[in-house]
């Protein structure tokens, strides 16, 4: 009499277990602070007088996305200077980590690596600093042909960055990473290179892994990285298995970024951050916190997330 009523209870319990195994609970989105390690505040967004995204607008988007610190760089550097000097930025609780952009205009994209006036401009900007303190890095720069990593100004800038302890945000392929590292006075040992998009051309995961091992300070920024996420059955972008494994292998080496290179990226800024929060939720809490915030905070001396 006591045993019989237990059967349906056990059956129900077994059914619950089966459901739990068959459909694992959806991971909870990462909810902590974000460090946007690849942000542009370019002239067409806001030139100080006009433009669709004045300081108040971009700060509101950062706040909505839970972004509490940014690597800011802009074409020309006035945009970064504006963000760094604005009282609104401080009021919004956003820390600006200013980088010197190498581009005064679009034409500079294709010739900076051999243009001595760019080197002069970088030195002058560095000497000037910003209202938010000294510049902490140079870039983002692009090398569409990796051989241009051997340009005279590219060589000088790698030496200058290391001498001044500046980070370097580089949109380049894996071959150019090795060439740039060869120009560092320590052959890359002390070079604080941030690999924008961690190879937008799609360097295989094994190659990224080998470069991270070889260069101890190399960091990977993850915007526009092909193969990083795969859609799940519900259409949500989740980490692809081989990238998840790489992030777990190097939990202190990756950063997230918005790459607001055109105004359209500002329109989707909070969605971009929500996308990061979704796949960060698939990782162990400490790894998610590292990639979301602590890795950037450690690079630039900001307080760590609790
Ligand atoms: Zn960019």
Could you walk me through the main structural features you see in this protein, from its secondary elements to its overall organization?
Helix 5 links the parallel strand 3 (95-100) and strand 4. It is globular, with a radius of gyration of 22 Å. The strands form 2 sheets. Strands 1-2-3-4-5-6-7-10 form an 8-stranded parallel β-sheet, with helices on both faces. A two-stranded antiparallel ribbon has the order 8-9. The protein is α/β, with parallel strands linked by helices and 306 residues long. Helices cover 42% and strands 15% of the residues. The protein has helices at 6-22, 55-65, 78-85, 87-91, 116-128, 152-163, 174-183, 205-214, 241-249, 263-267, 269-280, 285-300, and strands at 34-40, 67-73, 95-100, 137-142, 167-171, 193-195, 219-221, 229-231, 237-239, 254-255.
